[in-house]
Amino acid sequence: GARTRNVVKMMRERLSDSLLAILKSAGEVADTFGFGAYVVGGFVRDMFLCRSNEDVDIVVEGSGIAFAREFARIHNARVHTYEKFGTAVVILPDGFKIDVVTARMEYYRFPADLPTVEMSSIKLDLYRRDFTINTLAIRLNADRFGILIDFFAAQKDIKEKAIRILHNLSFVEDPTRVFRAIRFEQRFGFTIGKLTSGLIRNAVKMDFFKKLSGRRTFNELRHIFEEENPTPAIERMHDYDLLRIIHPDLRPDRKLIANFMAVKKVLAWHDLLFLDEAYLRWVVYFMVLIRQFDRETTRQICEKFAMSPRHQVIFCKDRFLADRCLFYLGRNIPLKNSILYRELSAFRAELLLYMMAVTRSRAIKKGISQYFTHLRHITTSVKGRDLKAMGIEPGPVYREILDAILDARLNGKLRSRDDEINFVRAYVA
Ligand code: ATP
User: Fold this and answer.
1) Are 107 and 117 in contact (CB under 8 A)?
2) How far apart are CA 422 and CA 429, in angstroms?
3) How confident is residue 107, by pLDDT bands cut at 50, 70 and 90?
4) Cα–ligand 1 centroid distance for 42 (angstroms)
5) Which superkingdom is the protein from (predicted)?
6) Whose CA is nearest to atom 13 of ligand 1?
7) Among 256, 177, 251, which Cα is nearest to 209's?
8) Does residue 177 have its Cβ closer than 6 Å to ligand 1?
């Protein structure tokens, strides 16, 4: 049986009032149908770890779809249902999202020819999850609101800071859990349990990953590079000989680790200054990770992981252009603003951040940061129509003049619109 205890007090202390109200309301809606309802998984885990988590997952014993529709109706929310899976997403008017799944009553069929086991539906739902720390559930129905259900000793593993799978066939069932184990271990500063660790080594030895699609494998890898600090996870992957899934020659040597640390610093700098400018963290890390490989090897890696054409262009083309650009900039120190602008304006944020991280030249790093904070926003005040008004015959010369104005502006030679107009007069004369 499960260990239960009342955690209402913890919920009141650690969750916002509005979140608490949403959970209470979910329990009341479930009551009107006679369904059981639980908030489960990462959300509960993070509440225990005092980490904020906005991903609310609700498991309903009954019909998750009927529950979600009614909950949405009451809250004026939108709802998307996926009948085939018995799942739904509710989107509240303020944008807050709630995932709903149905716990079906059924038998758990082990992989291989082991006997099936009968379980209560919530227990079965939790049994399918990756690690014990993700199996906590809190009852939401009014009469038992706030009762914590712990079937698999999750509280003990959270206390012991251990990542443990639920049964020995877990990695057979889903080898991507190996990457998830490493990701959670590093994120929380936990340790993968002894038995779980042995099963990971076995999964690597038996190459369970070969039956996985490249896309699924990469999807989990990508999550690792989205973490706050992916460096220790890379070292851990090396411990388990997992880096060979990316390429057999990949090693976390001093240079790679130094570059990873540099990326972390550069991204922190960027996020502090440009909070609202979105970019893909994993792209920057992955470019650094596979930097040692030539074009053809890089292409093979992209292919193996079935990357989208958009991402393939970044890794196979832009990355090499960025390295060439670094070389060029290195030969043009001290760097003029006009050169920085001309060379850097073709690159997207991920590439600029990559260049800042891997360059060993302070002057280049400073130049790129100057471009990022300042130069990229500079434009000329004089436009084509102004040239026309000045009586200059339209033609290719317009591009030439406007470029010359921009260069002069970037290099600090023109300060005002009048300066620009005088510059044009002198230029055509
Ligand atoms: P994150 O903070 O990274 O989102 P999370 O724990 O919320 O962490 P998700 O990947 O969003 O993780 O997954 C939500 C829940 O679904 C997890 O708590 C986990 O129990 C379960 N889950 C996800 N992937 C798997 C998997 N491959 N095998 C088993 N359970 C999984």
Assistant:
1) yes
2) 11
3) low
4) 7
5) Bacteria
6) 42
7) 177
8) yes
Fold category of 3-160 in CATH: Beta Polymerase; domain 2 (3.30.460)
Distances 124 to 44, 64, 184, 197 between C-alpha atoms, Å = 17, 16, 22, 24
Rounded Cα distance, 65 and 79, in Å: 9
In three-state secondary structure terms, 303 is: helix
SS3 376: helix
Ligand 1 binding pocket includes 174 (Cβ within 6 Å) = yes
Per the DSSP assignment, residues forming a β-bridge with 3 are 150
Of 344, 345, 338, nearest to 365 by C-alpha is 344
- Does residue 130's CB lie within 6 angstroms of at least one atom of ligand 1? yes
What CA–CA distance (Å, rounded) separates 53 from 187? 14
| Beta-carbon contacts of residue 84 (< 8 Å; ≥ 6 apart) | none
**Euclidean distance between CA atoms 163 and 192, whole angstroms:** 5
| Domain edges within the chain | 3-160, 384-428
* pLDDT tens digit sequence for 191-229: 999 999 999 999 999 999 988 999 999 999 999 999 999
> Which range has the worst mean pLDDT, 63-72, 102-111, 336-345?
102-111
Token pair for 27: 């329990």
Model pTM score:
0.89
Tokens of 169: 């066939």
The answer to whether 168 and 193 have CB atoms below 8 angstroms apart is no
pLDDT tens-digit map of 143-179 = 999 999 999 999 999 999 999 999 999 999 999 999 9
At position 382, the amino acid (one-letter code) is V
